[in-house]
Amino acid sequence: MARFSALLMAVLLATASLRADTKKLTDDQKIEIIRGLMAEYAKVKVLLPRSKKILEVSSDGAWDKAKWAEAAKERGPAGRVGDIIQVTHVDIDKDRIVLELNGGGGSGRKWYDHIQVGMGNATNPISQGGTNASGGTVVALTFGGPIGQVSSADIKKLLLPILDFDKESANENYFETLPEPIKEAIKAKKATVGMNRDQVMLAIGRPVSKNRETKEGAEYEDWIYGEPPGRVTFVTFVKDKVVTVKETYAGLGGSIATTPEQP
User: Fold this and answer.
1) Which neighbouring-strand residues pair with 43?
2) Same domain flag for 204 and 146
3) Does 16 reside within a domain?
4) Which of 119, 137, 195, 212 could form a disulfide with 78 if both were Cys (CB 3.0 to 4.6 A apart)?
5) Is 149 part of a structural domain of the chain?
6) Residues 194, 241: contact at Cβ < 8 Å?
7) Is the whole model's pTM more than 0.70, yes or no?
């Protein structure tokens, strides 16, 4: 009888542990959340203050409106109703997902502005400027316990009371301010000379990889789309502007066929 009770207790503990594990995000799910939210644009639906402390909004859509209003009086807004804001960093904790918006609520710089890359004694900052230099804030979506099985799409829905991630809604105002050639390129899902980084992201999304180098005193950054075997596109920036777009077909054996540059 005692042995049976011990076995039963072991089964119950194993079952409880299994149920608890189902509430944990897998590494693949975490990667999907980060990829699905990183660099995304959203339309602000409520006054979004800059704040030294993380602004919390619960998964049921509630937030401390009085505290947010006080933060806005103290440090001003990170975004007003109708403004477009961008996710610039994502952290995943056990019971919350933290989004840095427009570079966070500190100095107004992006989280990666202080990071430099290079070879030998030559290093260069990753960031070359952009549209989010005015400062932002940090918002935490809290779950009151383990996050559970959620996707980036689920998180966007949970944040809908304060942020609208709908592509048409978030990009509509910004898109209408662009020059006609840039609009046409975005509609055609192509990068073109003269675009900035945000416009390239709207047109063709995030690159597979990036590469930076200095030639004759000028700093070049290549955004690389596609992998061999197949079509590979190189979008080259000087500062925040595209200067060339080149497409190649790269085979596994190293053969490369270059297509003409875009006009």
Assistant:
1) 84, 164
2) no
3) no
4) 137
5) yes
6) yes
7) no
Domain boundary among 177, 205, 230: 177
CA–CA dist 123, 128 (Å, integer): 13
Domain assignment present for residue 37? The answer is: yes
Does 229 sit behind a cis peptide bond, omega within 30 degrees of 0 on the bond before it? Answer: yes
Q: What's the N-to-C CA distance of the chain in angstroms? A: 84
Same domain, 133 and 253: no
Going residue by residue through the chain (263 aa), what tens digit of pLDDT does each one get?
Answer: 444 344 434 434 443 333 444 467 888 899 899 988 988 888 899 999 998 889 999 999 999 999 999 999 999 999 988 888 889 899 999 999 999 998 887 644 443 444 444 444 444 444 433 333 346 899 999 999 999 889 999 999 999 999 998 865 555 667 777 899 999 998 899 999 999 988 898 888 888 899 999 988 889 999 999 887 888 999 999 988 999 999 998 765 555 454 444 44
Beta bridge partners of 237: 221, 242
Residue 105 and residue 52 share a domain: yes
Q: Is residue 10 part of a domain?
A: no
Residue range of the domain that includes 215:
183-263
